[in-house]
Amino acid sequence: MRALTALAFGIASLSALAVSPAFAQDREFGGEIELVDPDTLRVCADPNNMPFSNEKEEGFEQAVARFLAGKLGRTAVSYSYFPQVTGFVRMTLGANVCDVIISYPQGDELVQNTNAYYRTAYALVVPKGGDLDGIDTIADPRLKGKRVGVVAGTPPATFLAKAGLMSKAKAYQLMVDTRYENSAKAMIDDLGKGEIDAALLWGPLAGYYAKVSGKDYTVVPLTHEGRGPATTYRITMGVRVADQEWKRTLNRVIQENQGAIDEILLSYGVPLLDEQNRPIVSKAGAATPDAGAGAPTPKG
């Protein structure tokens, strides 16, 4: 079974890296970079995991990759596709067929993390202007008696149980074959049909599917849940453990272009948070940055 992995954390549970030494040169920043192609930005990606990536190159990871390629002086972007299930790192970075995973949780030891380039959270989605609009925590008493959609085995499910709301909750599968099923889209579709009153999803999924649904929803990052499993996460890029100079290069590009990267993510509906859990919003009047030819506009 392939995993709609972002429902749980944004990245799958991945198997160990295999690394061997080799070297190349980065033309803009210089220095010895193990295994990294000097001409093409080679990206490891899932072939069917919107809004992150797909084979049509419509995901925000791919928009970020095109933007980075321009800043790095790379002449092209290529993708090595493999489902983000067990074996993803081994079959991509570990096999030396690509040089960066665009989204990877901070602190995972299977890769070397860059500095985080965005921070997000699980989110609550409710109809704008409805009786649940204004809720910012699962513990809010207004959710009593409501039917809440939640992905089984995720942190929001724990908080739903603590609040005594599981008896009326509608559970969606965490592990699905994404060629045929999409739990995040199904949940937002059910919200639109009135089959559930609220939806709890991983933030990038919540924001994207709410955005492309054609309906007016409020997306609220869950930052007030108190003790229990984490609901907020820093997301980095993942590189091989040996690729120290490559990591430094990416860190530099991220730092110098953070605002532009934020705009790309926001254009896909990703709810972004600063370190004080304050929402990061699009700059008033700012144009979406050029992510290269073919950068998609999210659509349903």
Describe this entry's structure for a reader.
By secondary structure, the chain is of the alpha/beta class. The protein has 2 domains: about 160 residues, Periplasmic binding protein-like II (D-Maltodextrin-Binding Protein, domain 2), CATH 3.40.190.10; about 100 residues, Periplasmic binding protein-like II (D-Maltodextrin-Binding Protein, domain 2, 3-Layer(aba) Sandwich), CATH 3.40.190.10. It is about 25% helix and about 20% strand. The protein has 7 helices and 16 strands. Strands 3, 6, 7, 8, 9, 10, 11, 12, 13 and 14 form a 10-stranded mixed β-sheet that branches. Strands 1-2 form a two-stranded antiparallel sheet. The radius of gyration is 19 Å and the shape is elongated.
Architecture blueprint of SSEs:
Elements: E1 24-25, E2 32-33, E3 40-45, E4 48-49, E5 53-54, H1 60-72, E6 76-81, H2 88-91, E7 100-105, E8 112-113, E9 118-127, E10 148-151, H3 155-162, E11 170-172, H4 183-193, E12 198-202, H5 203-212, E13 217-221, E14 232-239, H6 244-256, H7 258-267, E15 272-273, E16 279-280
Parallel strand pairs: 3-6, 3-7, 10-11, 10-12
Antiparallel strand pairs: 1-2, 4-5, 7-14, 8-14, 9-12, 9-13, 9-14, 15-16
